[in-house]
Specification:
- The protein has about 210 residues and is an all-alpha fold.
- The chain has 2 domains: about 1-120; about 125-214, NusB-like (N-utilizing Substance Protein B Homolog, Chain A).
- Helix content is about 80%, strand content about 0%.
- It contains 9 helices and no strands.
- It has helices at about 5-15, 25-70, 75-100, 100-105, 110-125, 130-140, 150-165, 170-185, 185-214.
- Helix 2 packs antiparallel against helix 3 (about 75-100) and helix 7 runs antiparallel to helix 8.
- The two termini are about 45 Å apart.
- The model has no long low-confidence stretch (mean pLDDT about 75).
Length: about 210
């Protein structure tokens, strides 16, 4: 997991704690928000580990059942298949848990991660009016304030990364989609993808218009 990916998720979780109307945040307040974000991910990791352990136990039980109580070969095969599926799910859950939250926890004090997360948070806060304007234009038959807060913040992060930080458009959209997958469902991440692609068109139109005026 790259530092910017870690920073992006820390920024997202930090923004989720930020009230809509707030004055200038102190460095300590920002640090406290990021610490709370790390703790959130750590709690998620603990829950995922518990679920993986339960799935492994269920898989083990089904394997034992296939050997001892299955009435026939077909039933035994079905039990073995279920055990394999449960074990596979547990392994994938463990892989996801190890791959991200532990790295976040260990990387929370790395300067590059902190700096980028704080840059995103600061830009989302300072440019919110401009960012929300372009997002509102990009929404079709929908209002920005009706979106789930997590979706609004994912969109805002992507816009400031493209607009202010200069992140490659495809990278910013792909990262936003990955965050939407992690915190939502297929319908939500497809929605995020569509909105951001319309944002790109609007930004291109605005840039072209400014060039003609100059």
């Amino acid at each position: 997991m790259q530092p910017r990916q870690i920073a992006r998720e820390l920024a997202l979780l930090s923004l989720s704690q930020m009230p809509r109307e707030t004055g200038k945040l102190s460095a300590q307040q920002l640090q406290d928000m990021m610490l709370a974000a790390v703790r959130t991910l750590s709690n998620e990791a603990s829950s995922a580990l518990e679920m993986a352990a339960a799935e492994l136990q269920r898989g083990s039980d089904r394997l034992l059942d296939s050997e001892t109580i299955a009435p026939n070969l077909a039933s035994a095969k079905a039990m073995v298949k279920e055990a394999i599926e449960l074990t596979s799910t547990a392994i994938n859950r463990l892989g996801s848990t190890i791959d991200f939250p532990e790295i976040v926890y260990q990387s929370s004090n790395i300067k590059e991660v902190q700096d980028y997360a704080l840059e995103i948070i600061g830009l989302v806060k300072s440019k919110r009016t401009e960012v929300d304007r372009i997002l509102s234009q990009a929404l079709v038959n929908w209002q920005l304030d009706r979106l789930a807060k997590i979706d609004r913040d994912i969109l805002r992060i992507a816009v400031v990364e493209i607009w202010d930080i200069g992140v490659d458009e495809r990278v910013a959209i792909n990262e936003a989609v990955e965050l939407a997958k992690r915190y939502g469902n297929e319908e939500e991440y497809r929605f995020i993808n569509g909105v951001l692609r319309r944002v790109l068109n609007l930004l291109a139109e605005e840039s072209s218009q400014m060039s003609r005026e100059n």
